[in-house]
Design goal:
- The complex is a heterotetramer of chains A (466), B (265), C (392) and D (263).
- Helices cover 42% and strands 22% of the residues of chain B.
- Chain B has a five-stranded mixed sheet.
- In chain C, helix 15 links the parallel strand 7 and strand 8.
- Chain C has a domain of 158 residues: Rossmann fold (3-Layer(aba) Sandwich).
- The chains are: A alpha/beta (466), B alpha/beta (265), C alpha/beta (392), D alpha/beta (263).
- One adenosine-5'-diphosphate binds next to helix 3 of chain D.
């Protein structure tokens, strides 16, 4: 790691940058000019969010708050738990613990910094994490291992049984720094009684672990409040989803990332509800006024991302969709699999519902919700089994009227790359052109954006889509 | 006093050194041939010629390098990791950490006061951490090996390159050339990709004390200077001899030790 | 010994084919979390699946993506080439992500290559934790497995048969333990290559035949005077799944080292822990196979594994550890790094290498790394301040 | 109407001039560092052979790596489309085109109308590409053109397992050290490459007829080994140099475009 990078506290740096960007919208012209100079590498991204209107600004503020919470945690007498994006932070909020979600931190870093998270990723390898491991954890983990972030107190991870490389990153962090560790573990099936019970047993034990680590008992009133908030958020997200279904969609591509990034950072937190409200409101207005979601004006094509998006400098990926008139109808991360959502109709038994009537009902609800977070829901079992990746992708492609399906991930993702070729083949058999992006969503050294873009262009042209 | 020899048959170059009383009598370096046996004969012939000696004058001879098991005239063969450790110590007595980058391998090691190797790490991943990577890239850029190293200093904004694959990086490089990116920025990007890969390996052994680079890539000033930046440490210069010769020198020193302890043939 | 070498180096070795030709079923499994006793109790030969003898990866690469460890790819390659045609069944376990995707890849390959998917193809869902509900889940999985074997093969697996199977397997465990003890002595009478071949053979041979041979061989060994360890460095091999005899040969080729122990899932790793031969056999099997927790797929148990490794180093008197991981095996790759950090701090020299699996290994590169490591050990002498060996 | 296609690859530049779907002339030249120069050079060659001048050509389509840098083209098309187009034009029964060039390998499936149904590139490694053979030819000190012939004389079966070009090179060097025959090593290389490419083709399902295009198709050793690996006898594109198929496809697109412009 470059010595100059060692000089800055990572969280502080990020909080500062995001704060500055968020404040831009209200600043005077002169202040704005100053700030652009202060955050030169971030300007592309920040402009993208600011141009997205009130939701974008709210999102930047939310991001800043996220880092700020981490920075202030210990001062405020709170513990920090390192965790994964597919472990809902709502339980941590209910228990007064501050989440530090590696994948989110890496993605934001990759967007914000000119050099991406390269230095941190590489530092992680220096400590012994394999270079072949998933970059989404490696970035933030590198900063943590290098001691450049606020110290974390314990680790809760929920990918064992679903994604080795992810789970392994957290297990490594725990062993390397000697921090307490709890793993939620998922069976390869979903929806049957046995696995439902397993989810709950496992979740209860996790709560015991968090209680022990934080020194605070779970307060069910608090949990009830948080779940009620999640309930609202789910309904708002469902509204967004409905609007994504419209052709042409009034939802700009960049909104999809805000939906899930918000959820991964602030599920159950009123701040996220506010963000969603602003988004729904803005989108409704757009729809009413006939303003298309795409800056290109015309919607030429609709895409379902069957996995994650591409997060590198300057939001290139989202701009690309905007400019070419391609509607982004969400990725595996966008959806929440709440009962009653349209896309779960074709996926019986694989959704959850929220019931706050009793402490037990609340626990069951949150455990089942957690077991249906992105990825841990759909890539836990063989892809062609009931409710898993193939059925889910097809259900979404149908409902969102996708013209084609695109995969993007990271080379570290053994789990999806292990089945991707047959999976793509099956999707093609169902009549969907499939493009497999060969890059790393978090590390554009693996494939430059130019090369990635060329391949995308080629796909759309050769397959006669654009 | 006895003459001893070290012969380092690498994948790209073959080196031979004749030493006496801890001093170099003669050295030679040639481009490796397809068969290591041939390379060894040739480079040894060359160095013997320069010193005006014959193979019989060598009391003990140690072979090292990629082709070490194919050299007919040596008494023994030792891995290049151990030889580079010894050689580095001779080149710079204060050295504790050695980085050796040759044609097809990159190794970093800690050495003790006698030049014995302790912890070491080697690049097992991709060809991009090797000298061969630089050669391929230099060819694409139509510059010489020397010149490639000098590009870093001239560059203002180096490109970022996939450091994971030589051949794919080559594709990116061609793309950058095509789109008119200045050659120094491309070259600097190449050196940086290489240095980044090496830095990971260096830090894996926890560098301490004086650091020395051996092997041919030590001559690439772009890689060296970027590596210094990444590590935040200075890399010492070897003045006594060409760092590319370190393996052969180490082999000769080990040979001298064998000769001293009476293990002559 | 020849029997062991044959079994360890040939996919369709004689013992398997003899069993098969006598009309009895053979079932393959992929990972050591599958209790072989259950198959034995059902009159089925359990055979650990391997990837040796592949000379290309065209089938493996057709279905698996590029970033997958070469071990499951090699298994698929062999399957695609019809080398597993002797299998009546296969058990896929989510040992690691590459391994569990063998389920889809093998089935999909079956759409293209006729007859390569055994009639009985079963996904055995092993949890990643052995506490409470994890153990319950595993136990239930065992019951489901038993039930499905009974249904498919028309057999009955009684507790009595299971207890008997456990006893038979325990005998092998005791013998392997004896072998371990022999290797731990100051004078080692057996090369690591031979010992490993014997261990690997145990994962494919019919158990009774195996124990018979093992017993005979051990009694020969006990008579042996010749020492393999004279002036050599004692090595322990750990890391990724390995059944590669060549790797051990490579280490011992220069005659400066002898492999005295390994911590590999094909090697002698479960020795010592015998399974109770009375009581509830299913519960005992579950406790043994899941509770054993010796592999990094059981997340969060690093300290336990480090402790176990230290004890094994102590017992075997290893001078140094060779830690290998197959490329893209994150689990062992990361754990090796931790082991290296913690063991080097104790003065135990470690070599960490990344490699391809078996037939695809780059022997030249391995040889250099191992050679240099042995040179390091020979100057270092006994590790200063390191673990002092407990005298046997 | 006279049209042309110009294919600037990583290694070679190709040009084809056509009139009424008949080839007037073709040219292949080594590509330099600047695609614009390579294009001008190869185009000049083709024009000269056809006895034409640039002004005589009504439409030119560019393709290949350097397609964006060719100054004189009217439009561009991807190599995938061009190779498919060219191959289908020569042989309408073709359902799969395997194109191995210097920098990548691609398998493309076509429907009965010659439209691209699916395609796939080589995985992140270069070991299934022409570059692999180039590097090896250099290490073995033997001209590329002779590899096919030399490999055919092989008597002993060797295998080269390393997936990486650079590492495979050292594997080759060690085979040389062991005293292995060059013919056997080359044969092993052909099979190694063929196996990698066959995995590519199979993952999108192989359908007959299969043809091979791109420079590597000229290597009879690879052609044979790939047929073997696919378990399907590939068809030869009669009378057409496989290396120019991409440029020919581009010329065919040019004819279509020109047709649209001046019906
Ligand atoms: N003059 C030079 N300037 C910069 N780099 C050089 C120079 N000469 C050689 N190199 C680099 O050194 C490498 C060869 O190193 P060497 O130690 O001779 O390898 P080996 O021992 O494997 O043959 C070449 O690949 C090249 O990258
Ligand atoms: N005459 C030949 N005989 C055998 N192989 C050849 C011949 N000419 C070219 N090749 C092979 O073809 C490759 C170049 O193919 P080509 O289609 O021209 O590539 P590109 O379009 O990328 O420039 C070379 O890498 C080489 O392996
Ligand atoms: S599935 Fe892949 S991208 Fe997702 S968390 Fe795991 S490794 Fe990362
Ligand atoms: S290393 Fe562990 S997960 Fe892998 S095959 Fe062995 S026992 Fe199974
Ligand atoms: S990615 Fe490139 S350099 Fe790396 S192994 Fe493959 S061909 Fe070699």
């Amino acid at each position: 790691m470059r010595p100059e990078i060692r000089e800055y506290n990572y969280d502080w740096m990020m909080a500062g940058t995001l704060n500055a960007a968020g404040a831009l919208a209200n600043g005077t012209k002169k202040e704005t000019e100053m700030t652009w100079r202060y955050i030169p590498y971030f300007s592309g991204v920040a402009r993208a969010f600011i141009n997205a209107g009130p939701p974008g600004i709210a999102f930047l503020e939310l991001g800043a708050r996220y880092y700020q919470n981490i920075l202030n945690a210990h001062r405020d007498g709170k513990k920090i738990a390192a965790t994964t994006f597919c472990n809902t932070p709502s339980i941590l909020y209910a228990m007064g613990v501050v989440p530090a979600t590696f994948e989110v931190l890496t993605a934001i870093g990759a967007l914000v910094w000119k050099r991406g998270m390269f230095d941190y990723m590489d530092y992680c390898c220096e400590t012994g994490m394999p270079e072949t491991s998933c970059s989404s954890q490696r970035g933030a983990l590198g900063a943590v291992l290098a001691g450049l972030s606020e110290k974390i107190d314990f680790i809760v991870c929920d990918t064992p049984g679903v994604c080795d490389t992810n789970a392994n990153a957290f297990a490594f962090a725990s062993a390397y720094m000697d921090k307490p560790f709890y793993q939620l573990n998922y069976p390869s099936v979903l929806g049957d009684e046995r696995s439902q019970k397993y989810h709950i047993d496992d979740y209860k034990e996790m709560i015991r672990f968090i209680e022990e680590q934080s020194g605070k008992k779970l307060d069910y009133d608090q949990l009830g409040t948080v779940l009620a908030e999640v309930d609202k958020q789910d309904a708002l997200t469902a509204d967004m989803e409905d609007m994504l279904m419209l052709t042409p969609t009034p939802v700009p591509p960049i909104y999809t990332i805000m939906i899930y990034a918000g959820r991964f950072c602030f599920s159950g937190h009123p701040e996220y509800t506010r963000l969603l409200e602003i988004m729904v409101d803005t989108t409704r207005k757009r729809a009413a006024a006939g303003v298309p979601g795409l800056s290109a004006g015309e919607e030429k094509l609709r895409v379902v991302m069957c996995y994650i998006d591409h997060y590198t400098v300057d939001m290139n990926f989202y701009h690309y969709f905007e400019e070419r008139g391609i509607a982004h109808t969400g990725s595996i991360l966008t959806r929440n699999f709440r009962d009653g959502n349209k896309y779960v109709a074709d996926l019986p038994g694989t959704s959850y519902s929220i019931d706050t009537s009793s402490p037990d009902a609340m626990l069951d609800s949150i455990a089942q919700m957690n077991a249906r977070m992105p990825m841990v829901r759909s890539i836990r079992g063989p892809y062609d089994k009931q409710g898993m990746w193939l059925e889910e992708t097809l259900a979404c492609a149908k409902l969102y009227q996708a013209d084609c399906i695109i995969y993007n991930g990271t080379p570290g993702c053994r789990n999806t790359w292990g089945m991707l070729k047959p999976f793509a083949r099956d999707l093609e058999k169902h009549g969907y052109p499939v493009h497999i992006m060969n890059d790393d969503g978090f590390d554009d050294r693996v494939e430059s954006w130019d090369a990635t873009r060329e391949r995308l262009d080629e796909f759309f042209n050769v397959r006669g889509l654009l | 006093m006895p003459f001893v020899a070290g012969c380092d048959v690498g994948s790209l170059t073959s080196k031979a050194v004749i030493m006496k009383n801890g001093k170099i009598v003669a050295d030679a370096i040639i481009k490796s041939r397809a068969r290591p046996g041939d390379s060894a004969e040739e480079v040894m012939g060359e160095v013997l010629g320069r010193a005006n000696l014959t193979q019989k004058d060598m009391v003990y001879c140690i072979g090292t390098g990629y082709g070490r098991d194919k050299i007919s005239f040596v008494d023994e063969s030792v891995s290049e990791i151990s030889c580079h450790g010894k050689g580095a110590r001779w080149l710079l007595p204060s050295v504790e950490t050695v980085i050796d980058i040759g044609g097809q391998d990159c190794k970093t090691m800690k050495i003790d006061a006698d030049g014995n190797v302790g912890r070491f790490a080697a690049n097992d991943k991709c060809a991009s951490g090797t000298g061969r990577f630089l050669e391929v890239m230099a060819r694409v850029l139509h510059v010489g090996m020397d010149e490639l190293g000098k590009l870093t200093a001239r560059s203002r904004s180096p490109i970022t390159l996939a450091s994971t694959c030589t051949v794919w990086a080559q594709a990116d490089v061609i793309k950058y050339i095509n789109s008119g990116v200045p050659i120094e920025d491309i070259g600097a990007g190449i050196n940086t990709a290489m240095a980044a890969r090496v830095a990971i390996l260096v830090n894996a052994v926890k560098p301490s004390g004086d650091i020395l680079m051996t092997g041919g890539v030590a001559k690439n000033i772009g890689v060296v200077s970027t590596l210094e930046k990444l590590l935040g440490m200075k890399i010492k210069k070897a003045r006594k001899a060409d760092p590319q010769m370190a393996g052969a020198i180490g082999a000769a020193l080990l040979a001298a030790h064998k000769a001293d302890t009476g293990e002559r043939r | 010994m020849d029997v062991f070498y044959e079994a360890a180096t040939r996919v369709d070795c004689r013992p398997i084919m003899e069993w098969k030709n006598s009309g009895r079923p053979v079932v393959g499994y992929t990972c050591s979390y599958t209790p072989a006793e259950i198959f034995y109790a059902a009159g089925i030969l359990p055979v650990r699946l391997r990837g040796i003898e592949t000379d290309g990866m065209e089938v493996g690469d057709t279905y698996f993506g590029p970033f997958i460890c070469s071990f499951p790819k090699c298994i698929l390659q062999l399957a695609g080439k019809g080398k597993f045609s002797f299998l009546d069944g296969a058990i896929i376990t989510p040992g690691c992500d590459g391994m569990r995707r063998l389920d889809e890849c093998w089935r999909k390959a079956g759409e293209d290559y006729e007859g390569i998917v055994p009639d009985y193809f079963y996904y055995f869902d092993v949890p990643h934790k052995s506490e409470n509900h994890g153990m319950d889940w595993y136990l239930e999985e065992l019951r489901l497995l038993v039930k499905s074997i009974e249904d498919h093969f028309h057999v009955e697996i009684t507790d009595e048969k299971l207890l008997n199977a456990i006893a038979v397997f325990n005998k092998g465990r005791r013998l392997l333990r004896e072998l371990e003890d022999l290797r731990s002595k100051d004078d080692v009478v057996v090369s690591g290559t031979d010992a490993f071949a014997a261990a690997v053979a145990g994962t494919v041979m019919p158990r009774e035949e195996y124990t018979r041979y093992l017993e005979g061989w051990l009694s020969d060994l006990k008579e042996r005077k010749a020492s393999f360890s004279d002036g050599k460095k004692r090595i322990m091999v750990v890391g990724s799944v390995s059944d590669e005899i060549d790797l051990f040969e490579l280490i011992e080729a220069r005659k400066t080292a002898v492999v005295v122990a390994e911590n590999l899932c094909f090697g002698i790793r479960y020795e010592g822990n015998e399974i109770p031969e009375t009581g509830d056999p299913m519960a005992s099997l579950a406790a043994h196979y899941l509770g054993g927790s010796v592999c990094p797929r059981m997340f969060g148990k690093y300290k336990e594994r480090l402790q176990m490794l230290k004890e094994r180093i102590l017992r075997s008197g290893a001078d140094g550890l060779i830690m290998q991981n197959i490329r893209f095996c994150d689990l062992h790759g990361a754990e090796n790094a931790l082991f290296e950090r913690d063991l080097e701090a104790l003065g135990i020299p470690c070599l960490r290498v990344e490699r391809e699996y078996g037939p695809h290994i780059d022997a030249g590169r391995m040889r250099l790394r191992i050679g240099a490591f042995l040179e390091r050990l020979s100057v270092a002498g006994k590790p200063a301040g390191g673990v002092q060996r407990r005298t046997a | 109407m006279i049209v042309a296609g110009c294919d600037i690859g990583s290694l070679t530049a190709k040009a084809v001039i056509m009139e009424n779907l008949n080839i007037l002339s073709t040219a292949v030249a080594r590509a330099g560092t600047r695609p614009a120069d390579s294009a001008a050079n190869v185009m000049e060659k083709a024009l000269k052979r056809a006895g034409l001048r640039m002004n005589d050509i009504s439409h030119i389509v560019g393709t290949g790596y350097g397609r964006e840098q060719i100054p004189f083209v009217s439009s561009v098309a991807s190599e995938i489309s061009c190779h498919a187009k060219g191959a289908w034009h020569v042989m309408p029964s073709v359902r799969m085109v395997i194109d191995i060039g210097g920098q990548d390998a691609k398998a493309t499936r076509l429907d009965a109308d010659g439209n691209v149904a699916r395609y796939i590139y080589n995985d992140k490694c270069a070991s299934g590409t022409g570059r692999f053979l180039e590097v090896m030819a250099e290490a073995l000190e033997i001209p590329l053109e002779e590899m096919g012939g030399v490999g055919a004389r092989s008597t002993e079966k060797l295998s080269i397992s390393n997936q990486c070009v650079i590492f495979a090179e050292t594997e080759v060097v060690s085979l040389v050290n062991e005293g292995k025959e060059t013919a056997d090593i080359i044969n092993a290389l052909h099979h190694a490459l063929a196996k990698r490419v066959s995995a590519l083709a199979r993952s999108i399902e192989v359908e007959q007829d299969v043809v091979m295009t791109g420079g590597v198709a000229k290597n009879s050793g690879v052609f044979g080994a790939l047929s073997q690996a696919l378990g399907i006898g590939m068809k030869a594109l009669n009378g057409v140099d496989p290396q120019i198929v991409g440029a020919m496809g581009a010329a065919l697109f040019a004819a279509e475009n020109a047709g649209k412009e001046n019906p």
